[in-house]
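Progress narrative, Year 2. Work on META domain-containing protein from Leyella stercorea advanced from sequence curation to structure prediction during this period.
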Amino acid sequence: MKKISIIAAVIALCSCSATKTTDAAVDLNGEWDIVKVDGNAVDTTKTEFRPTLGFETAKDNVFGCAGCNSINGKAKVDAAKQTISFSEIGTTLMLCANMEYEQQILKALESVKGYKAAGKGCVDLTDGSDKTVLQLKKQ
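Result:
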């Protein structure tokens, strides 16, 4: 019984809450791990590097890693409306053994229009229909 309680506690601490909050004060600044793509958990054993996104909202910069290649570009964040507009996104051109998550992350990134709090240090990046396409967890 004690073992089950410990496992449940670890899962609760390591995952983002499924309950969405409406906290309008989400601060995207800093580095985030990409933990879900289109609702599916990212298995980092199948990526060359840990998938991440980072934001410098004062400079309109976005940076990170899609699992193999580095990401750099511009991200115009409107905190009041919780919208994001990406532009000039570029990646390095390395070829890695497994590019599955790389392709999914880059495709999802193309559809991002907004963001919202997802609880427990997480934020959801959403498309134009408010559907979560990427979930990030603060590093």
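The chain has one domain: 2-138. The domain at 2-138 is CATH 2.40.128.270 (Lipocalin).
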